[in-house]
Protein: CST complex subunit CTC1
Amino acid sequence: MVYLQFSLDHLHILSPSVAMETHLRHKGEEPGGDVTARKQTVEEEEETAGSKRRRREEEEAKSGNPWPCVSMVIRVEQKEGVSWRNTGAEAEDQEAGLRLCFSVKAAVIGPVVSWRRDPKNEPMTEKESEQKQERQVVLAFSGVCTRWFPVLQPGCFYRLIAANTQDPSVLIGCGVSERSGVDLHAESTLQVRRGWRFHTLTRPLLLPTCRQAVPPTVLSVSEVLDCSSELVCFQGVVSERISVNNRTAHSGHTHSGVRLTLCDQAGRSLQVYLDLSHTPYPPGLLPGNTLLLSGFQRRLSR
Structure:
């Protein structure tokens, strides 16, 4: 394993934008006239796109049936990482198999609201905050919907849009049937569809007392060993790292994961197993580093 360290002074982020053109101009690799011409081309394309958008909005306003949709406002509380999982077919032309997936735990701020057109990121309305008590929902993302992973961040508000429908039930998650005499602690689950959209909202002014997402309690290694919780968030110092390999018939050893030994100041230690067969190798798993691990399943060996 080789680790590379870069200085920001020696790092250039290139993209088809003015930043790249500026960098090339300083390097003397492209004359300014070409850059100016390309800027004009970009401006013309943006102007054309804006004209098309305005024309489309005018046509929608004149027509009696603009794009209908339903929405609900959520606050992201927890987000897990992207990984490969076995899932069912998302559409008729797709087969079941391994797909990139992740899930988000969110608080639903208000009821599902119907719109004649997409409100996008307009300020939150009163009818979107009529619900007195928040409910929890787990949003499941798979396939192309994982493109929303970098957009959704814990503690932020979003308006989830389901386009081309006026049926509020599409944004109501599937819950677990409750039996009499049994306390239900499972949140409802909502599978995000490929045509849905998320619009970022500022902190709603209609919710001055809206509580922020409560961060999980960070435990020490000793507290993890003494507690009875199934999912834990803890930190510790890496004292040992061992690669876990699987032997295959054709290629011999194949790296599939890592086993870490974490300890605390009290001298107590535990072992953490990371399955890296379907996820990128996370940096920083070095002896001597302090790690913060969230959402890990606790198992007691006897």
Observations:
- The radius of gyration is 25 Å.
- The domain at 69-201 is CATH 2.40.50 (OB fold (Dihydrolipoamide Acetyltransferase, E2P)).
